[in-house]
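Let's inspect one such protein example.
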Amino acid sequence: MLLDVLLDAFLDCLRDLPFLFAAFLLLEALEHHASEKMNQALKRAGNFGPLAGALLGCVPQCGFSIMASEFYAGGVITLGTLLSVYLSTSDEAVVILLSNPGHFADVFRLMITKVIIGVTAGYLVLLLEKWWNRRHPHHRKEIEDLCGKCGCHEEGHGILKPAVRHTGEVLLFLFLFTAILNFLLEAVGMERLSSILLADTAFQPLLAALVGLIPNCAASVVLTQLYIDGVISFGSAVAGLSSAAGLGLVVLFRVNSDKKENIRVVVLLYVLASAAGILLQAAA
């Protein structure tokens, strides 16, 4: 079992490697060559962030949530855009639904619903974020914040070496975290954990969103399968899949130095996903 856990963790990290490296390389290039211009452009184009984030996030892959976490830590995107990506991220749910012929229609239903949730919640948070920034103008993030204390630019090796260094550090962190989490899930059993948390109850969307916060693709797989089997409602499935940001949350805690802020992001993600699930379940 230990070898299987390590192999799964390695394959998961290998899949995310291109996204990690591409994001860090872009951030390094922006910091070196276009930091001030990028900050000014983002101030002018930031209002389109949640819409773009929700549309890109709904693509069935988890790499974009990782890139979004890095961009947020570097001040490239707003909190509203970050949450719109997290909420609309589809991961393996689309693939699993497509593999079940009777649920083809649910693919479009799920993606459209999550995009609407991502856009709505993203713009709501963006408004709150603008109000907060006006009251605290000195707490805005900059691209330099992502690696301001690492000293990797003092050696004068351009953008490639710092990007490789940051990618390696985060990749190692992801591998260790994923291996430990996979081992715990194997020991307890994801299906057993889900059956306990997702018993027939009016609080099902709240519990589903809690399961979705588990930073592992197994969470979205199990939630989707439980919906297909009729164990949970569509509203509960949406709640769980909306909070399922995958390894994006893990990367956020690794690259964003403000840990209290990271906790607030998780709480906000959970509240928004749960609220969306409850509203959908009440409207059904």
Remarks:
- Residues 2-283 form one domain.
- The chain has 14 helices and no strands.
- The chain has one domain: 2-283.
